[in-house]
Amino acid sequence: MLDLVFEETKSQEKMPSLNHSYLCTQIIKQLLQHAELLPLTELTLDIDNGLTPDICVYPVKQIHPNFFNDVTRYDKLPLMAIEIISSSQNIQTILQKAKKLADAGIKTVLSLEPYTRTIFVTEKDKENTLVYNSSVEIDGICIDFKKIFESTEE
């Protein structure tokens, strides 16, 4: 019985929802406006036992897929990683994951909490910065979260 409860809890750990999917799509739409960037979803990075951010942002020239030989853990770090907190996830767990990603060498990790429209900005050896319902610009990469949330209010 204990094994069954553990498996059920583990499978419910991350259960993306409509809001989660919508936000990922809207963020990617904005990132694709930068021709030099390629946002990738659900890419498992070769960090720890394999960490998988919702979105990894790479220079387009750095990504070279080989459809005959796939990579299950990518060893090149993105410019930025983005996490969107789902209703089934714990904020503390996501912030700990963001810290692991930053400590591994990802310059900036954005964690979006949609209910309060809060963006946690995590960088190595720095305290988290909070941004509320506005745009975030990191190294010339701008994501306008206010615009994303306003588009849902129509």
Task: Describe, in short, the structure shown.
The chain is α+β, with helices and mostly antiparallel strands. The chain has helices spanning about 1-10, 20-30, 90-105, 145-150; strands spanning about 35-40, 55-60, 80-85, 110-115, 120, 130, 135-140, 140-145.
Write out key terms for the chains shown.
single chain, about 150 residues, alpha+beta, tt1808, chain A, 4 helices
Overview of the molecule:
The protein has 154 residues and is an alpha+beta fold. It has a single domain, classed as tt1808, chain A (Alpha-Beta Complex). The strands form two sheets. It has a six-stranded mixed beta sheet with strand order 1-2-3-4-5-6. Strands 7-8 form a two-stranded antiparallel ribbon.
Average pLDDT, rounded to a whole number, is 89
Describe the biggest sheet?
6 strands, mixed
> Which second-level CATH architecture applies?
Alpha-Beta Complex
Number of domains: 1
What is the gyration radius calculated from CA atoms? 16 Å
CATH topology: tt1808, chain A
**Biggest sheet: strand arrangement:** 1-2-3-4-5-6
Strand content: 15-25%
DSSP summary: helix tally? 4
Structural category is: alpha+beta
**Stretches where pLDDT falls below 50 for ≥5 residues?**
4-12
Total count of strands: 8
Give the % helix.
25-40%
Order of helices and strands: HHEEEHEEEEEH
Cα end-to-end separation: 47 Å
CATH top level class name: Alpha Beta
Overall shape: it is globular
CATH homologous group name: tt1808, chain A
Oligomeric state of shown chains? single chain
Task: Please render the helix and strand layout as text.
Blueprint: H1 2-11, H2 18-31, E1 37-41, E2 55-59, E3 80-84, H3 91-103, E4 108-113, E5 118-122, E6 129-132, E7 135-138, E8 141-144, H4 145-150
Parallel strand pairs: 3-4
Antiparallel strand pairs: 1-2, 2-3, 4-5, 5-6, 7-8
